[in-house]
Amino acid sequence: MSRAVFQLLVVFVVFSATIYLLLMVGPDEPVGPPGERDITIPRAPSEAKNLTNPFPISDEVLLEGERIYQSKGTCFTCHGASGRGDGPAGLELNPRPRNFTTPRFHELRTDGELFWVIRNGSPGTRMFSYSPSIITEDDAWKVVHYLRTLPTRRRT
Ligand code: HEC
Fold first, then answer.
1. pLDDT for position 20
2. Which phi and psi angles does 78 have, rounded to 5°?
3. Does the pLDDT of residue 65 top 60, yes or no?
4. Between the ranges 2-11, 20-29, 114-123, where is the mean pLDDT highest?
5. Is residue 130 part of a domain?
6. Which of 79, 118, 131 to mutate to test the pocket of ligand 1 (most atoms within 8 A of CB)?
7. How far is CA 74 from CA 5, 40, 122, 130, 143, in A?
8. For residue 100, how far is its CA from the centre of ligand 1 (angstroms)?
């Protein structure tokens, strides 16, 4: 191999390595549009599936659930008054707050899994633990019943 060809090769290798390294040093957060996380991936450990709601559904329980969601629970600030995940405090979050008006979401989750997230939060997101610090565990179960009604409620 002639000296000139060898030098050219060295220049080429160094050049490629530099480009490669520059491409590697990107933002370490996954890039992509902010949005809701995939609903098919559970947020709670599998044993949470079997927790059962101690309250039978009634008009009274649903009304209490609604009051908690729309006031002291502060759920509406992120999840939106009608549950679409479009509350003012949720618009800039990544991942976005869950949209409770999607029927498929409710098919994929048991009451126990929803309760578990309200109780423990969803790690790595702005969904913190809201019970028992902000609402009691009984309140959390009532809110779960209310969340179930959001896909069929008239939009406000
Ligand atoms: C500060 C904003 C914020 C508030 C307030 C908030 N949430 Fe959330 N919530 C989120 C975000 C963000 C997610 C998405 C988490 C994820 O994708 O893992 C979420 C997800 C959830 C989920 C779905 C978890 C799943 O299985 O996918 C439930 C249930 C939930 N929130 C209930 C509530 C309830 C009930 C309240 C009120 C007591 C509340 N949230 C208040 C931000 C909020």
1. 72
2. -105, -45
3. yes
4. 114-123
5. yes
6. 79
7. 70, 26, 16, 9, 12
8. 10
Q: Which of 76, 93, 107, 117 to mutate to test the pocket of ligand 1 (most atoms within 8 A of CB)?
A: 117
The CATH number assigned to the domain holding 55 equals: 1.10.760.10
Nearest CA to ligand 1 atom 41: 75
Ligand 1 binding pocket includes 48 (Cβ within 6 Å): no
CA distance readout (Å), 123 to 44, 102, 127, 128: 10, 22, 8, 8
Is residue 11 domain-resident?
Answer: no
Residue span of the structural domain in which 97 resides: 46-152
Indicate whether residue 102 lines ligand 1 (CB < 6 A).
no
pTM assigned to the model? 0.82
pLDDT band at 75 (very low <50, low <70, confident <90, very high): very high
98 lines ligand 1 (CB under 6 A): yes
Q: Is residue 25 part of a domain?
A: no
Instruction: Report pLDDT digits (tens) over 19-51.
Output: 776 666 654 444 445 689 999 999 999 999 999
User: Domain for residue 89, yes or no?
Assistant: yes
Number of domains, the chain? 1
State what percent of residues in the chain have pLDDT above 70.
Answer: 89
Q: Which two tokens stand for residue 139?
A: 């309140």
